[in-house]
């Protein structure tokens, strides 16, 4: 008997739909006519044991107990899913061949592997276990995946990496949350001061941005423009490029701070000849943007529709599981396997059968075209989020589902359109000995940009870019009929929004000064994972550390005061960068799980020492938690220690960071 173990019921149903009929449904499984069986997990069926299961004394929070580090790690069965685990135990024992069908990512690998190890599957049976990787729940895609099973042992390093992350998060979150909460109580604060490897640096990021905005001092600065007319009557503007002699009147970003200087230049160049010192015209092409990863989709959906990261993730899960019109959504990849290109005609046809602009765009798509998105070297267990071959009707989708699906479908269709073709122009001029520059981009063929909304089709122009510049040659004389001064004021950095906070998490290296750490972060996925970022942000709101003001996200008074109490290592992304680098090396079989854990335990001891050395006066000024938050925390603190510290449970309790 072959037993297929899916990550969740929806995936199990999709697998069963691709297998022979008639089938018999029982409680917790689906039997096939040949005696094989499809069953499922319901997310994580197991979780890290509570501290008191290692030692009853750990039920109370005491500094003397810390650090709590298990010598032999224990799993505990989740109360809500014990019945399904019992079904799996019996089926696993009965099966001769096991097929692991967890989601195609690090956590999906661990989720089923932990059940296999917990149920003590014999070594040989474990060695023979197969791996089914499903990115698309349509029957044709699942059948294709069933024909390409791989040995589950190929993914053992991925599983160890996920296990290392889960246990490290448990150790880090639980111990430090207890330490700072106890210290807070000693100072009179009655809330839970939770620490997380990812949540705390995110809070630190927002708090730092808020402080930067509050301490920002606006400065006036000035830009000088030469208004030019050539011999044919064409007019354009050229910006003054100050020389080194002007440095005393400029700031570190080369902005002119002296109005008299700017006005003097503008006066001097008025009604003076402007000689072309260089004129470069280059026809350029811009390839379509890659299909979406989850974070890229969340960022664009936040910008376009003001949807939160969690809303986008929830919508994607519905589109994937219920409607089956998109592929696996928790993907960190923006590329597609070469083999997938064969499905392009069927996917485009399904989109053609839709309605509105999306259907029109699909009808004009060339399915034979192959963009740089198809790249096997960039694809691991899962690929970019794209539409499936499943037909759909917009009327069957909610408004937000339709909006998000349209983004995904449009981004996919762009791969079958020509490049955006434009003329890039740059003209340099000498006026009264000063240098001026004009830049412009002139569209030649919209290509994939034809799929964008009308207001977005033309490339946005900055102060230095104009829609079109005349054709001039070096040495040609033009005329500056007027010099003008634009008065501007420096602005503070923008407050974070859902879109920009997600972008900061994925591109966290921009916020790191240490070159080595920055290099590591560029090679990793940033802060958090595709599947956890939304829930981590939501967690900070639930705990009262973040607040919203319209679209803006700010640190609360409590969040800011707490960040001010913590050592730098906890509020910067540096430590997470090192963790991710080590975990990635483990997943590739290039590093040891044991070495990673030993290093972490040593660092944990140092951080706990710092919490003990911190004077309680540092926590005295923490604003009291809200009554609602305090009541909720008090009722759940002892029942679920890990929820305060950060759980390893995937998706449904994403406090792992």
Describe what you observe in this structure:
- This protein has a seven-stranded mixed β-sheet with strand order 2-3-4-1-7-8-9.
- It has 657 residues and is α+β, with helices and mostly antiparallel strands.
- The two termini are 39 Å apart.
- 44% of the residues are buried.
- Helix 6 packs parallel to helix 21.
- The longest helix has 31 residues.
- Helix content is 39%, strand content 17%.
- It is flat and about 90 Å long.
The total of helices stands at 23
**Structural classification:** alpha+beta
Give the overall silhouette.
Answer: flat
Uncertain spans, ≥5 residues at pLDDT below 50?
A: 628-657
Main sheet summary: 7 strands, mixed
pLDDT averaged over residues: 89
- Distance from N terminus to C terminus (CA atoms, Å) equals 39 Å
> Helicity range of the residues?
25-40%
Count all strands and give the number.
18
Radius of gyration: 29 Å
Percent range for β-strand residues: 15-25%
Give the neighbour order of strands across the main sheet: 2-3-4-1-7-8-9
Offer a few descriptive terms.
single chain; alpha+beta; seven-stranded mixed sheet; disordered C terminus
In short:
The chain has 657 residues and is α+β, with helices and mostly antiparallel strands. The chain has 23 helices and 18 strands.
Chart the SSEs and their pairings.
Elements lengths: L1 E5 L2 H9 L6 E3 L2 E3 L5 E4 L5 E3 L26 E3 L4 H13 L2 E5 L4 H13 L4 H5 L2 E2 L7 H8 L3 E2 L4 H31 L12 H16 L5 E10 L5 E7 L17 H11 L2 E15 L7 H12 L3 H13 L22 H9 L3 H8 L35 H15 L6 E12 L2 E12 L8 H4 L7 E2 L10 E13 L8 H9 L8 H9 L9 H10 L3 E4 L2 E4 L1 H9 L2 H4 L2 H14 L5 H21 L13 H10 L4 H5 L12
Parallel strand pairs: 1-4, 1-7, 7-8, 14-15
Antiparallel strand pairs: 2-3, 3-4, 5-6, 8-9, 10-11, 10-16, 11-14, 12-13, 12-16, 13-14, 17-18
């Amino acid at each position: 008997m072959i037993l297929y173990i899916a990550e969740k019921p929806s995936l199990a149903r999709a697998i069963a739909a691709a297998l022979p009929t008639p089938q018999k449904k029982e409680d917790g499984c689906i039997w096939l006519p040949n005696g094989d069986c499809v069953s499922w997990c319901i997310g994580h069926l197991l979780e890290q044991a509570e501290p008191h299961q290692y030692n009853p004394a750990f039920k109370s929070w005491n500094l003397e107990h810390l650090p709590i580090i298990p010598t032999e790690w224990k799993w505990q069965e989740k109360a809500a899913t014990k019945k399904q685990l019992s079904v799996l135990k019996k089926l696993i024992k009965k099966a001769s061949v096991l097929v692991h069908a967890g989601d195609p990512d690090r956590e999906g690998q661990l989720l089923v592997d932990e059940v296999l190890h917990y149920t003590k599957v014999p070594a040989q049976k474990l060695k023979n276990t197969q791996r089914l990787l499903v990115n698309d729940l349509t029957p044709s895609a699942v059948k294709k995946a069933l024909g390409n099973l791989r040995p589950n042992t190929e993914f053992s390093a991925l599983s160890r990496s996920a296990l290392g992350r889960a246990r490290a998060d448990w150790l880090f979150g639980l111990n430090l949350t207890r330490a700072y909460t106890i210290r807070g109580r000693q100072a009179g604060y009655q809330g839970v001061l939770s620490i997380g490897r990812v949540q705390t640096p995110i809070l630190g990021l927002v708090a730092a941005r808020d402080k930067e905005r509050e301490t920002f001092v606006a400065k006036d600065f000035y830009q000088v423009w030469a208004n030019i007319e050539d011999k044919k009557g064409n007019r354009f503007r050229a910006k003054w490029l100050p020389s080194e002699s002007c440095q005393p009147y400029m700031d570190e970003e080369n902005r002119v701070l002296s109005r008299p200087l700017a006005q003097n230049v503008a006066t001097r160049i008025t009604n003076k000849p402007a000689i072309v010192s260089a004129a470069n015209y280059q026809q350029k092409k811009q390839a379509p943007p890659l299909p979406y990863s989850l974070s890229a989709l969340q960022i664009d959906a936040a910008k376009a529709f003001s949807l939160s990261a969690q809303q986008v993730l929830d919508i994607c899960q519905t589109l994937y599981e219920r409607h089956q019109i998109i592929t696996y959504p928790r993907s960190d990849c923006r590329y597609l396997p070469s083999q997938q290109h064969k499905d392009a005609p069927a996917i485009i046809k399904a989109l053609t059968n839709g309605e509105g602009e999306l259907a029109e765009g699909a009808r004009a798509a060339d399915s034979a075209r192959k963009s740089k998105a198809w790249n096997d070297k960039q694809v691991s267990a899962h690929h970019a989020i794209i539409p499936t071959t499943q037909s759909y009707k917009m009327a069957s989708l909610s408004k937000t589902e339709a909006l998000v699906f349209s983004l995904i479908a449009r981004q996919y269709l762009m791969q079958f359109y020509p490049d955006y073709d434009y003329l890039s122009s740059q003209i340099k001029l000498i006026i009264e000995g000063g240098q001026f520059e004009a830049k412009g981009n002139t569209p030649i063929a919209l290509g994939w940009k034809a799929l964008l909304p009308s207001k977005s089709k033309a490339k946005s122009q900055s102060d230095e870019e104009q829609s079109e510049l005349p054709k001039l040659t070096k040495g040609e004389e033009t005329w500056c009929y007027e010099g003008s001064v634009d008065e501007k004021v420096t602005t503070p950095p923008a407050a974070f929004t859902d879109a920009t906070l997600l972008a900061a998490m994925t591109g966290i290296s921009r916020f790191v000064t240490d070159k080595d750490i920055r290099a590591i972060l560029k090679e990793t996925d940033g802060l958090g994972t595709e599947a956890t970022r939304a829930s981590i942000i939501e967690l900070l709101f639930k705990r009262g550390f973040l607040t919203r003001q319209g679209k803006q996200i700010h640190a609360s008074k409590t969040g800011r005061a707490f960040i001010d109490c913590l050592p730098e290592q906890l509020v910067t992304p540096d430590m997470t960068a090192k963790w991710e680098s080590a975990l990635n090396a483990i997943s590739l079989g290039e590093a040891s799980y044991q070495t990673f854990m030993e290093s972490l335990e040593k660092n944990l001891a140092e951080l706990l020492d710092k919490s003990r050395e911190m004077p309680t006066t540092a926590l005295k000024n923490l604003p009291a938690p809200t009554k609602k938050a305090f009541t909720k925390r008090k009722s759940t603190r002892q029942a679920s220690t890990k929820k305060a510290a950060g759980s390893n449970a995937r998706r449904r309790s994403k406090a792992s960071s």
